[in-house]
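WARN retry 2 of 3 for item q-0093 after timeout on previous attempt; input resubmitted unchanged.
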Amino acid sequence: GWTKGNKLYTLTLVPKSAQMLAALEEVAVDIDPALGSMRRLSMSDLDCETTVMHFHDIQLNPELDPAELELAVPEGTKVIRPLEAVGQ
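OK item q-0093 returned
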């Protein structure tokens, strides 16, 4: 649906499989219709933990060095991988 005020479409994604339902409670994506790109991603798991990612300064189809996509998180950061539950 349309989120009033920010001109973004907010999509709530519903898992189709029981395995994904066991890992994720809700996934919401904000789409910028002017660019056709994602601006925000929010995932909530069954442990009431929510991960929110905001995307800004979006460039479509840039040339990237794969090393630029490596994620280095600070020591002590709790890393959650909800999709690992799908394989169990």
